[in-house]
Amino acid sequence: MVPVALAPSAAPAPSAAPAAAGPMAQGVLMPKAGITVEECVITEWHKKKGDPINVGDILFTYETDKASFECESTAAGELLEIFYEDGDELFTYSTMVMGQELLDYELKSAPIVLQECLQNKVDLRVTIVGERVFPVSITTEGAGIEGDWRRLEKERLRYTPVIIPDKVTEQLLALMRLLRLEFGGIDLAIVDDTYYFIEVNPTGEWGWLTSAAHLPIDSAIVDALVEEG
Question: What is the pTM of this model?
Fold first, then answer.
């Protein structure tokens, strides 16, 4: 059986909801950009188990380190289950599963994103500030990483500045414009010279890259803020 990557659906983007509302919404926009296709706290549920749901209903309020936001339902139906209550915090990594495991899971009760697992890949993190692009490869002991690279100890990871094709750069910048983002941490994977989009995080971490990869991301952010002001 072919393994697939099992990942949680992300919370809507603080600065560009609903356009950048996580991998599912981002996937809809990928063809427009020409691209081959984290963490929050629920502060209040506005619906309870068994309630009828209409499109546009506010399901819950969630909070990031930046601000609070409301999550609207994009489908009509019934709220079957609430797995996490007010104040609960959840973060989970992508997990590789086999076909039989998928048959055993109660997938209808949990929002997830399923993707075919990319074998022999090299992960890229591309930090974008305005029109400036800072790509790095993420490896361990000179090789790509099977599964989610975030599972490895940080000491084993190597971040190396790389050059990506102009076409890919243009596609990523087009995506950022579609999502109305001035900043984003984009995850890509390369397999046999093909670039695969994973996700864009509007609040992606970048601080460690200024020291681990010696990238002037901090200066780029300062420049962007000064220009905006």
Answer: 0.61
